[in-house]
User: Fold Twin transmembrane helix small protein from Leeia aquatica.
Amino acid sequence: MRVVVIVMLLAIVASMGSAVYYLLSRKSQSSERLVRALTFRIGLSVCLFLLLMAGLYFHILPNQHL
Assistant:
C-alpha cells in the first residue's frame, strides 16, 4: 500500500510539472495540454484520497491516533 501511495504522489508531482511546462510554453496547443494535465492531476488526487479512505475503512492502513 505504501508503494502505491508513493507512486501516485510521484505521478501527481509529474503532472504538476508538465502543467507548469505547458503553462510556460508558447505553442498553439499548450492550453489544451495544460487543462488536460491539471485535470489528470485532480483525478489522481481524488483517487488517492479515496484509496486512503478505503484503506482506513478496511483496516489496510493502521489508524494511528496522535
